[in-house]
Amino acid sequence: MIKSIKLKLWLILFVTLAISLGALLAITFFSVKKHFLDYATQQILERLAPLERAVVAEYAEAQSLVVFTQNPTRWNQVRDTTYRQYLSDQNRSAAISGSRPQDWSERESIEAQLQPKQRAFFQHLVLLDQANTPIAGRMKEGAKYIFRELSYNDHIIAHIGYIKPTVFLRSVDRLFVEQQLNAFGAMTALMILVAALVTALVSRWLVHPLSLLAKSAKHVTAGDFSVRVNYSASDELGSLCQNFNDMTRSLEKDEQLRKQWVADISHEMRTPLSVLKAQVEAMEDGIRPANADNLHLLLRNIDSLAHVINDLYELSLTDLDALSLNKERVSVSKAVNEVWASFEERFQKKHLQAELCFPQTNDFFIIADKNRLQQLLTNLLENSYRYTDDNGCVQIDLHEDAHNVTITIEDSSPCVPDNAIGNIYDRLFRVEASRNRETGGAGLGLSICKGIVNVHNGEIHASHSKLGGLKQSIVLPKNTP
User: Fold this and answer.
1) Is 318 left (phi over 0), alpha (psi -120 to 50) or beta?
2) What DSSP designation does 225 have?
3) pLDDT at 368
4) Among the listed residues 125, 150, 149, the one whose alpha carbon sits nearest the alpha carbon of residue 139
5) Residue 391, SS3?
6) For range 53-76, the mean pLDDT
7) What is the pTM of this model?
């Protein structure tokens, strides 16, 4: 069993080319032999002209062919004379052709082999009258004859029958065909050798990027996602290598995010746990009393830890497509007002100007999970509350079209940098310049928002707000399947 794809490809290409060239050689061999044999036979038949003229002359003298029936040797004499003339013409043609000295011995040897066949060809010539009745000559039993018409004064007077040769009767014809076939054979052998070299180069060219991919794949399997395939081409293999490089870049980024994820989650959970441990140890040692204030501090840290755990649980549900939904006909404007009301007091404490920019008389309905929709709105407004400077502004607007309802939440400065605005829905992502851990949260809220929108077959995206901060647009279909 051949395991190397390079060798398999080489064998496929080489065998295909070899078979094609072999078939071409065979077709050429039989075609050249057949057609040139027909040509050579026609040349021999032209040498029968003296015999034909002799028969016509006998007919012209006696106005019949009775001489051949009364004197059977007459046909033999005319036929043998023609044969001797044929041999004489053949020798003269050979001398005129100027064959190389080394060819003479070969030609003489071939002529010695062909003379019995030539003699047999002439000996089996037969003469028939216009009614195809044999007049002279000895017909070979079981042989298939071909006939040439003899005419006198535009009237058919007789037929000369001959057996079509199956081999060349002249040495020059045989030598010519052998030389041509030898040339074809040499050319075919050369072409097969070239084909072997070309197929080796082609198979190497095709397999080279595959070999690079195989080696790189081993590195990826071992956990090295920094590997890249150094192969560029505009064909499918080049596209495959480019896709592989894109995949490894994505895997490398995901691996970095995973490590950052583990580090950030550890930090987020370690902080409240450290506080809890320190407080409990202080109470055990009698350093801090177990009064209401200290217990409330413990409760806040427990709530902070529980919040992180709950967010992680929500994210795991979205990853598994297992986020529970209880879909019903929900009024988006009512849900916005309810969540907005829960933030009014907090907005006032921070001196944030809160505005609902849609008419309160308008109502917008979608098919959705009401609790998840409120969770979505809560997380988005919580984000605006945490990361908007005091004395700023927060606005929320609603509008609809035939198929969707769009919720827009905008806030004032600080703004999100251009290079970071596309990443705010990534898990644990923070803009370090203005949105850091000091403001609270574990960086999971917007990721959960994206998951909720996705399970409702909606879209969420962020952009810069005209107010100077962040603009978040949520498009939810009215009839979520």
Assistant:
1) alpha
2) T
3) 87
4) 125
5) coil
6) 81
7) 0.49
